[in-house]
């Protein structure tokens, strides 16, 4: 029966150490990266997808600074942006995502076609549909992340990349 007091003391010590770690964490320090390694967009203000509905309600479209148009398709939640992508590899002007994001080059605009202009996504906001969220920070950098596949892309003044 001497083992019960010893186990109790060990358990109390473990709980005390765990609580000390939680108490010392700074709750005001945001996690800059989500599990995908991309900037975390969840802290940005959500916008209503309905305000960005386009292409006969089959997609959500928006623009970001620099003449870039982006789209999230409702059918399969595929997503992408086209336009002059800063620092994109090999001069790519298209980035798209689904199970594996990637860059491509096209001779015509891919997103933003359909006759109706897309509404700008305001800085500090995000548009989310199913597992995809695209957010524009105050510096003009767009991050689109697929939470299911833990991947996505970044397009911004400092460059463009996928992960």
Short account of what is shown:
The chain is α+β, with helices and mostly antiparallel strands.
SSE topology sketch:
Elements: H1 3-24, E1 45-46, E2 53-54, E3 59-64, E4 68-73, E5 79-82, E6 94-97, E7 102-104, E8 119-120, E9 125-129, E10 132-136, E11 142-146, E12 151-156, E13 159-162
Parallel strand pairs: 1-9, 3-8
Antiparallel strand pairs: 2-3, 3-4, 4-5, 5-6, 6-7, 9-10, 10-11, 11-12, 12-13
Protein name: Secreted protein
Signal peptide: 1-25
Keywords: Signal
How would you portray this structure in words?
It is a single chain. The chain is of the alpha+beta class and 163 residues long. The chain is built from one helix and 13 strands. It has one domain (45-162). The protein is 13% helix and 33% strand. The strands form two sheets. Strands 2, 3, 4, 5, 6, 7 and 8 form a seven-stranded mixed sheet that branches. Mean pLDDT is 80; it is low at 1-33.
């Amino acid at each position: 029966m001497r083992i019960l007091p010893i186990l109790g003391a060990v358990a109390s010590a473990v709980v005390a150490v765990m609580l000390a770690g939680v108490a010392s964490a700074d709750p005001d320090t945001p996690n800059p990266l989500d599990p995908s390694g991309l900037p975390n967009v969840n802290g940005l203000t959500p916008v209503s997808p309905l305000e960005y509905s386009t292409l006969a309600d089959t997609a959500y479209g928006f623009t970001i600074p620099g003449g870039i148009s982006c789209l999230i398709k409702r059918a399969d939640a595929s997503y992408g942006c086209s336009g002059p992508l800063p620092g994109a590899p090999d001069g790519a002007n298209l980035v798209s995502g689904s199970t594996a994001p990637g860059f491509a080059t096209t001779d015509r605009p891919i997103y933003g076609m359909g006759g109706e202009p897309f509404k700008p996504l305001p800085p500090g906001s995000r548009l989310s549909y199913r597992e995809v969220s695209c957010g524009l920070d105050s510096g003009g950098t767009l991050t689109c992340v697929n939470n299911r596949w833990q991947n996505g892309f970044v397009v911004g003044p400092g460059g463009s990349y996928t992960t």
